[in-house]
Amino acid sequence: STQSTWGVFFLYCMSLVARMQAQLSWRKSRGALKEFNDFKACDHQFRILQSTCGEQTGLGTGSCVWDCALVVCRYLEKRFYLSGALNDLRAIELGAGVGICGMVAAYCGAATVLTDQAQLLSLLQENVTRNFPPNSAVQVAELNWGEDVSALCPPYDLLVVSDCVYPRLFPMYSAL
User: How far apart are CA 26 and CA 143, in angstroms?
Assistant: First the structure.
């Protein structure tokens, strides 16, 4: 029974990977940095700078907004925004990419740390600057999965992860 559950989960993950690879093929024909402005959550119109061809420029797949991230954002908004349940709590987003999920967590009231690899930090910081006033409770930090996390001062009350299903990302589990 457990083996069949894991088998179904594995097949589901592989179907997601296949869908992402198809999206990557489509994105290769697109240009450099573009704005993603058609997303509103928590009474805020998000202004996200993204690269739809980050795989070709060295930024990787975290340089754009993926469909699953929008689903996670809607969940955070519906679950936490009006209730105030994240007020005065700490959240961290692993593999934040452009940071939209962690920023929604911040708009829900959490002091939030958005983490990703070094090549994405300037894009991530730019998106924080576009969506929050200076000295907000949102921070950007480098985190390579599998490395020491003590500088990030764990523990956190909420862990946010979206679109991190590629097999080469398995070191993420040690960061959890």
Answer: 29
DSSP string, 9-55: HHHHHHHHHHHHHHHHHHHTTS-SEEEEEEEEETTEEEEEEEETTHH
- Which pTM does this prediction carry? 0.76
The greatest distance separating any two alpha carbons of the chain, rounded to the nearest whole angstrom, comes to 52
In tens digits, what is the pLDDT along the chain, a chain of 176 residues?
555 566 666 666 566 666 655 555 544 444 556 777 778 999 999 999 887 666 556 566 777 788 889 999 999 999 999 999 999 999 999 999 999 999 999 999 999 999 998 988 999 999 999 999 988 999 999 998 888 899 999 999 999 999 876 555 555 555 55
Cβ–Cβ under 8 Å, residues 114 and 103: yes
Backbone angles phi, psi at 35, to 5 degrees: -90, 140
- From CA 5, how far away is CA 12, in angstroms rounded? 11
Q: Is 113 exposed, middle or buried (0-12, 13-18, 19+ CB in 10 A)?
A: buried
Residue with tokens 């959550």: 41
| DSSP helix/strand/coil, 136 | coil
